[in-house]
Structure formats: structure tokens, C-alpha cells
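Checklist before submission:
- one chain only
- standard amino acids only
- sequence pasted in full

Submission:
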Amino acid sequence: MRDDAVRVLEQNWIGQSTVPSRSLYPHQWSWDSAFIAIGLRHVSVGRARTELESLLRAQWPDGRIPHIAFAPSVPRDAYFPGPDFWRARLANGTETSGIVQPPIHALAAWLTHQADPADPGFLQRVYPGLVAWHDYLRERRTLGPGGLVAIVHPWESGMDNSPAWDTPLARITPAPAGSFTRRDTDHAADADRPTDLDYGRYVQLAATYRDHGYDDRERPHAFAVEDPCFNALLICSEHALADIAATLGHDPAPHRRHAAELTDALVERLFTAGMFRPHDLVSGDLIASDTVAGLIPLMIPGLPVADTLLATARGPRFRLGEVRLVPSYDLTANDFDPGRYWRGPSWFNTAWLIHRGLVQLDQTESAAALRTDLLTLADATTFAEYVDPFTGQPHGARSFSWTAALALDLARP
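Returned file contents:
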């Protein structure tokens, strides 16, 4: 399995970064590259470093790390929305999207360093960009009064088609039919992908943000949500930045303080009914839709509600340890779908995050079972993008890079 996983990463390597999938996702994706580096560090620390440093070369002057860095060798219309849609070109010539993805990058950088801690040069190179990234989120994306960071597009959650976004998306008038051409359904089954209606709303939101100059503060957002997964990964990455700062001889205290403040705000604002739920800043309501995003805070060090959250993960909504990996949506919901993108299937990256939380909580037996399940499914499905939580049937792309990378990470001795 390890040899096969390495081959997937070699096949998807394009010189300075790794594409998630040669067909479905032919460019560099932000949080994909972080997960990929976590696996690559066991194969080639140099390539893991290059993966993260190449992504930072796509960082904007305001500090944001865009969710896509477009590969110039790929035809401009191979993916939609492509570079001609986003109209974002940096001074170094890199073309990118204008939105972001969950901030797991500092954690990936710290884990990459730990694979070869003798040379601090890598940390010295990436630390300023990672600090600027977190500063951007804290200064430009704290849109509500409670101190949490907000996303302004469903794609920024990384869980693009989550049922949690249905209510806020219903406010959005979709882009007119025929005004764009989807490319994702050229490479994946229609039943696995978002509907045309949802996609039209995604496109309209992105176009409005683009047409307002990707400005985060000067206008009200039609979609603005405090997402528990996004904020949980920011907290974990602040802890990682503290470790990086201490290694470089800088003061780690500001990073620890930011992590503590965000943890308090996350519990106070988003925890209810044994679960973390997104907060819709437009309506002012918590979104009563229980998704795997609400379980990701299990990996936060010292989370005060960890025991309650773990009980929810093991309960009827997610049945941790009883189904394959961790379903992306409440198994008891009327609109649960085991095969459609983020509306029920189990994903390897979220399983890896929850496994990390279980290890941290000394849930040895549960962590071992989840690890075994992830490795078994990765091998059996040829590193599928995601799987049916009941049958393990593969869906989406195959030879998917973060599946191979995270299997490599958990397969280590």
C-alpha cells in the first residue's frame, strides 16, 4: 500500500507542487497541499518543503493564501472557475483564485520540520508568510463581534457542498443558466457532484466577491459564516506557530494567546446540543445542520467540551467506530446522501483530523480502529476521494493525492 501511495504522489507531482487529481483538480489547491506535505515528509522532506513553499509563492500582499494556484501548463479552460474567471494575477506572474481554504498550513509546516529538525532554514523561510496568513484572517475576516473568523463562500470551508450551507445559500440568486460551463462533471458522475442550482449560487457568490475587488470589510456579505472546522484548524495552527516561533527564538506567547482566545470564543459561540454548529452572521442564527465540521474541534488541545463532543461522535448522528471512517453529515438527517459530495460520504482528510484528536485524547482503541479503517479503505479503493460510509464504495476521483498522503502518514511505523 505504501508503494502504491508513493506512486500516486509521484504521478500527481508537477514539478513544484502536487495536484489533487490529474483529471478533476489539475492545479494546486491550498489545504490539499498541506495534507499532501504531511504525507510527503515520510517520502521526501525536500518535496514536502517545496510543496508548502510553492503555495506561499501564491500568497497575496494582504496575507491571504488563495485556495487555488493555477498551473500555467494546464489549458486555461480545463477547470472552471479558472484563471480567466478569477482575474487575479500576482506581481510574480502567478494566477490564483480570490478565496481561501482552511488554515492547516502552519501545522503541516511544523510536522514537516519534525521529520528533519536539524535544519531550521525551512521554518525561517515559511514563518513570516504563515504569520501574515493568520494576521489576514484575524484582521480581515473577523466579521462578527465574537472574535471568530468567517468564511464568505462555501468553497472556503473545504466542504463545498455541505448541507450546512443550504440555508445561507438560499438567499443567493444563482448565476444565469448558460452563463458558465462546468468541468467537474466531465470527470465525475453527476450524482456525486453538486447540483446545477447549487453550482450557480457558488458562481454568483464568487463573481460578486471578485467584482467588489475581493474586499472583506467595505460591504456586507450575502454569505458570511463562522465555521467550526475553519476556526478549529486556525487554533491548531496557532499552536503550531507557537512551536515554530519558539524553535526560531521568537516569542510564542502571542500565538498561544490567540489560540486560547479563539478556543474560548468557539465554545461560547458555536457549541450547542453536544455539537459545534456554524453561525450565520447574516441571520444571526446557529445553523441546525450537524456535519463533520462540528467534530473537527476534537483535535484542539485542551478543548473543555471534548468528552461531550466525543459522545456525539459515537452517538447515532455519526456512529464513530460503527461505520466506515466518519460520515460528513448526520446519518439520521432526512436529506443524508451517502454518495453526493459532502452530503453524507466519508472523507479521508476529515478522518485523519479526527484520528489526530482521538490520539490526543488518549482514545487509543478508537484511534487504532479508525487508522486501520482508513488504511484498509485507501488501499481497497485505489485512494478514492471519498467513500460511502456504509459500504465503503468509492466515489469521486481515484488516485487522489491527499488520500495517498494521509495513508502514508498513518502507515508509518
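Reviewer check: The chain is about 45% helix and 5% strand.
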